[in-house]
Amino acid sequence: MTQKITVIRGDGxxxxxxxxxLHVLDQLGAGLEYEFADAGIVALEKHGDLMPKxxxxxxxxxxxxLKSPLTTPVGGGFTSINVSLRRHFDLYxxxxxxxxxxNTRSRYENINMITVRENTEGAYLAEGQEVSADGExxxxxxxxxxxxxxxxxxxxxxxxxxxxxxxxxxxxxxxxIKSTSGLxxxxxxxxxxxxxxxxxxxxxxxxxxxxxxxxxxxFDVLVTTNLFGDIISxxxxxxxxxxxxxxxxxxxxxxxxxxxxxxxxxxxxxxxxANPCALLLAAAQMLDHIxxxxxxxxxxxxxxxxxxxxxxxxxxxxxxxxxxxxxKAIASRI
Length: 334
Ligand code: ATP
Ligand code: MG
Description:
Blueprint: E1 3-8, H1 14-28, E2 32-36, H2 41-47, H3 53-62, E3 64-67, H4 81-88, E4 93-99, E5 112-118, E6 130-131, E7 138-139, H5 146-162, E8 167-172, H6 180-192, E9 199-204, H7 205-214, E10 221-224, H8 226-239, E11 247-251, E12 256-260, H9 277-289, H10 293-308, H11 323-331
Helix pairs in contact: 1-9, 1-11, 5-6, 7-8, 9-10, 10-11
Bound molecules: adenosine-5'-triphosphate and magnesium ion (MG).
Domain Isopropylmalate dehydrogenase-like: 4-330
EC number: 1.1.1.41
Keywords: Oxidoreductase
């Protein structure tokens, strides 16, 4: 059976890393059919719209998209494309694995965790931001709902269950921010009670940061509100060697979008030297999501084996390989 996915080749290094990723996916024989759709600067030039209606319809139809980084032009009043995609499809869970890989610039070797960040509420509200007329006082609000907390915590537990993970840690600051963080923690406890086979742990965010830096191998799945999740997921990417290997997924009820965490890297765009691994690892997350965990695992193993062999590594990993050369080295190990 073939599964159709929307593929957005994107801006900057986007097309290069996407071509490399599709080359490896073809080798995997996952039965994927690609529906290409434009977004970003390419789309603005072709269709006069950063996020054309056809692209949104394609994602709505296929429910799964693999997306390269996109440029949102500065000025001109454009909202970030990533933010508008998140809003349009109500992509409430941002899921970022942080896994140690060989031969990367990482301080640790045994990290294997996933951060699940609430993506639609918390401190990231457009409304309720105020600065007094004299510029002396600024106020911003935060909103946490039972529904918003419940669905993201449930997602974290379901993910743990589906991938055989053993522990979920809810990260909060309920001791001080009793209202919003308190509600999130209460809901997390309620949801956790439905998953007796998975260990539930609560950790205050400041302690979580220290523990992550000192003993990251103790973590399995982390779930938290928007702002804490934003910070912690970048911290975790840093723990395993940075942007070139950091994938992410944005999950909603009706659509899921898989992407690299890094941006368009204009400084190296068009040179064929970008590391395709982050997008490849996002593709592995996508395979897990669409019910192909064996293929996801084959893909990750091929990436690990290629890193271990230091075969055709790109410049960010200390090699001299090209984007497509690296992809071919990975494909040859599948
Ligand atoms: P954007 O505005 O789209 O976020 P940026 O200038 O912030 O772009 P990033 O893509 O966030 O750039 O990257 C920051 C740095 O990391 C750049 O120097 C870039 O070259 C490097 N980098 C990012 N992704 C990769 C990659 N896949 N392979 C190699 N280097 C990368
Ligand atoms: Mg950037």
